[in-house]
Structure formats: structure tokens, C-alpha cells
Design brief:
By secondary structure, the chain is α/β, with parallel strands linked by helices. The protein has helices spanning 7-21, 35-54, 92-101, 105-120, 133-136, 139-151, 171-183, 200-204, 215-218, 225-240, 253-261; strands at residues 58-67, 73-83, 89-90, 126-131, 158-163, 187-193, 210-213, 244-247, 266-268.
Length: 279
């Protein structure tokens, strides 16, 4: 919708939006709440997302993941960015949720999958791609993923990371996707484990290969005994179900040493390396 100078219409739209997100039957627009400026920022970001898609400004950076046992960089996580009109990087926290609301999210997923698979078709390392529950339940996205990993011959080196923090719903659909990927030689990781509300029992229903331990637990692991106990429990659980563990947010030598001491298999974070474009 083109709002033009119709501020009353803008105010009405903002009020309706506030009512929906606050789960109340009615909301009154209040200029003092500065909602209008936020609404305008969302409009600007929606425009940035659309232009980035049209102008091939969706870019992938890759963060290294180190193996404790080998002492080498075995794999990379694919992280999406947008390059805006000022040639500045825009990070996922600023645009992904809005992309879902503006229906641009599937296009971003396809572009990330395409870029990552094409890049690693020419490399030997493993790589991972993040998927949301909406990606997995979208048949057209799944078909695109399967077609791409087969055409680029990367099926045996790709890991798809599923966000635990979103809550894993539609277990039958997710489980079917996992089985299909694993039949092709791919792997599955549960991302941000420990940050959401999925239980250990729910994880047992899924045939996963990796558990990525959320950074909120890892970042204080060298100073917070409770965090260390929780992480130790996750590591023990992972070993019993035959899954490997990856520590996120490994940002210094002390945390690196502690995660290694607890028996975690892989480390990821600024101490290992920042996300960047691969040479």
C-alpha cells in the first residue's frame, strides 16, 4: 500500500498492528510512543530487502568451525547478510523477521542455499545452512534444496541447522525432511540448543547428527558453575544418542579451554574466526 501523506491511514495501520502484537482488541495510536518512526523504519527495511533480492545483494559470509580432535577447521556455517544502497552490511537480526512478514523470506533462503552449495562444490570442507520451520514445511523450498544439493554434488558435505529456539513443531514433517537429507548423505544439527523450550525427549524423536550448544550457556562457562553443569549434561546426553556437540560463542582462550575440557567436539566463535567471505 502506498501511504503517501495520509498520516491518518498510517496511524490507523500502526494501531491495528499494535493491537495484534499485544493481543488486545483495540489500540489507540499515540504520537508519543514513536511507533510511527518504527513503522517507517520497517518500511525502509522492507524496501532494502526487496532491492537486495532484485539486485543480487544477498551475500553469504562463512564462520569457521574447529574440531577439537583434529585441531583443524573442518566446516563452516553459512550466515546471510544484505548489502544496502550505501554498500553497508545489514545483519540478520535487522531483516530476517521482517522478511518473513513481507513474504521475502523464501527468496532469501533459496539464494543462501544456492550460493553456499555453489561455493562448496569447489571446496572440500563441510558446511552448514540454517533453516527455519517455515522452510522445512514449504514443499517448494524443500524441493529446491534437494535439487540444488544434488546438482552441486554437495549432499554428503552439507549440514542443515534447525533452530531449537523456535520450538520444533510438525514433527512428522521435520522428521521426514531429516530422513530424506540423511538418505542423500547430508547431516542435521539442532541449533541454539538450551535457549528454547524443546525438551530432551523431543530431540530423541529426531535423527540428528549435531547439537549446537547455545552461546548464552557457553559465554560464561569458565566462570559460571551452573552453566558448566548444564553444558556437561548436554554433552553427556549427546554422546548417549550418538550426536556430536558444537559450542557456539567461543570468544576467548579460557572458554575454548573449558569447552575442550568438557568434551565438546567442535568450537565456533570469534576465537576461532569471524564470519567472512571465503577466498
Amino acid at each position: 500500500m502506498a501511504y503517501g501523506d495520509n498520516t491518518s491511514l498510517i496511524a490507523a495501520d500502526i494501531a491495528i498492528h499494535q493491537a495484534k502484537i499485544n493481543n488486545i482488541p483495540i489500540a489507540v495510536y499515540n504520537e508519543d510512543e514513536k511507533i510511527k518512526s518504527q513503522f517507517q523504519r520497517n518500511l525502509n527495511m522492507a524496501h532494502t530487502i526487496k532491492k537486495a533480492i532484485l539486485n543480487s545483494k544477498i551475500v553469504c559470509h562463512f564462520q569457521p568451525i574447529a574440531s577439537f580432535s583434529h585441531g583443524t577447521i573442518d566446516k563452516y556455517e553459512t550466515l546471510v547478510r544484505i548489502v544496502n544502497e550505501n554498500n553497508e552490511l545489514v545483519y540478520p537480526l535487522e531483516f530476517l523477521e521482517l522478511a518473513k512478514k513481507t513474504k521475502h523470506y523464501p527468496q532469501i533462503t533459496r539464494e543462501v542455499v544456492r550460493q553456499a552449495c555453489e561455493i562448496f562444490s569447489k571446496r572440500k570442507e563441510g558446511f552448514s545452512i540454517n533453516l527455519s520451520s517455515s522452510d522445512i514445511t514449504d514443499r517448494s523450498i524443500v524441493d529446491f534444496i534437494l535439487k540444488t544439493i544434488l546438482e552441486t554434488k554437495t549432499a554428503d558435505r552439507v549440514t542443515f541447522e534447525i533452530l531449537e529456539s523456535e520450538g520444533i513443531e510438525k514433527f512428522d514433517v521435520v522428521s521426514s525432511f531429516i530422513d530424506t537429507i540423511k538418505e542423500l548423505g547430508g547431516r542435521i544439527a539442532i541449533d541454539d540448543f538450551g535457549s528454547g523450550y524443546s525438551s530432551f525427549e523431543n530431540i530423541l524423536k529426531l535423527n540428528i547428527d549435531y547439537i549446537k550448544i547455545d552461546g548464552s550457556l557457553i559465554k560464561n562457562i569458565d566462570t559460571n558453575m551452573r552453566h558448566a553443569i548444564v553444558v556437561e549434561t548436554i554433552v553427556d546426553f549427546a554422546k548417549k544418542i550418538g550426536a556430536k556437540t558444537i559450542a557456539e560463542y567461543v570468544c576467548n582462550e579460557e572458554i575454548y579451554a573449558k569447552t575442550k575440557e568438557l568434551g565438546i567436539d567442535y568450537a565456533q566463535g570469534y576465537f576461532i574466526g569471524k564470519p567472512d567471505i571465503l577466498p
